[in-house]
Amino acid sequence: MAANETVQDIKSRGILWGFSVFGIIVLTVLIILGAWWGSEPGQFNIVDEAEKRAKETHETENLPTGYVYTNTLAHIAEVLLHKPGGYITNDVGPPGVFLDNVPNWEFGALVMLRDATSALRNHFARDQSQSAEDPDLAVAEPYFYFENDSWALPSTEAEYQKGVEALHKYMERLQHFGGNIKKAQFYSRADNLWQYTEVVIKRLGGLSTRLTANSSGSNYGPGLTQLEREEADKQGTPVAKVTWLEIDDVFYEARGASWALLHILRAIKHDFKDILLDKRAMRTVEIMIKSLENSLEPIFSPMILNGDGYGLFANYSLTMANYIARANAAALDLRDIMNRG
To answer: What is the pTM of this model?
Structure first.
């Protein structure tokens, strides 16, 4: 009888030990995956990516005005969808469901992508306010405004991919000519850039305000939801201070927005080169780009610090707010330059 009990005890311990080892292995894998998936995507070369796309259509010698800008938007969306871990905001399982920084980063980049796609559809690809809009851009833009956290029927990834494909169709039509008239158009004019800059100013101003509100010395009330923040950005209204647990959420949203806008501005510098040189505004765009590059410097702390004034610890939110405010000041100058006759 005692022998049987001993055998049963050994089996019980063996099963318990097996489950423990399995649990440790699973936990280790999730931690490693979480660290990998939680890393921010690096920057990409806008011209190289455009040329790579052009090779797929066998039109490497023809990169018309607007091709780099449009491909940059498409590639930003592709990075969101295909970076390590894929698109994480709508994940319902581990480790994605436990990662809160990446979804905020994705949301910040997505807002900038939406604004730039709207500008392409409503301004850059139209000769004047009463001209017909491009059919592929009319398809592409709404897909990027699909809800950002749908995981099935249809999934967010599937809808955004349709937007990417519509942008690619516009790019292909932009490359080909029908007689002496292009099948697709892109107008790199000062008035078009001025209208888009107005939107950028509001976005950067809203982010800068919210980052500053994260400072422990700020006197704002409870935080807002993500949708309320987006609406507040559009309206340019004051934003409440978030709780200390959400400080990193706003910070990473600003990082994602800066990452996307940085590439969009580089594309604008390329496709609006003539008008920027003519208006002597190239330096202004370069200041915006440099400020956003500085905002994306590597983070060496395992957590987002929120120090006081001249205290021992840095305040990451105020540092980010400073860089974005500098970019916003340059955007104000760019708007004024583009608005001059």
So the answer is: 0.86
**Gyration radius from the chain CA atoms:** 24
Any residues with CB less than 8 A from the CB of 3 and at least 6 apart, and which? none
Residue 341 pLDDT > 70, yes or no? Answer: no
Give the pLDDT mean for 100-121. 95
- Please indicate, yes or no, whether residues 2 and 83 belong to a single structural domain of this protein: no
Domain extent, residue 141, equals: 44-339
Reported confidence tier of residue 228, pLDDT bands at 50, 70, 90: very low
CA-to-CA separations, 299 to 169, 211, 294, 310, in angstroms, rounded: 38, 16, 11, 20
pLDDT over 70 percentage in the chain? 84
- Phi, psi (rounded to 5 degrees) for 62: -125, 95
Q: Is residue 176 located within the same domain as residue 29?
A: no
| Residue 286 sits in the same domain as residue 324 | yes
CB 340 within 8 A of CB 279: yes
- Residues 22, 124: one domain? no
Q: Does 62 or 46 have the greater pLDDT score?
A: 46
- How many structural domains comprise the chain? 2
Residues 32 and 52 in one domain: no
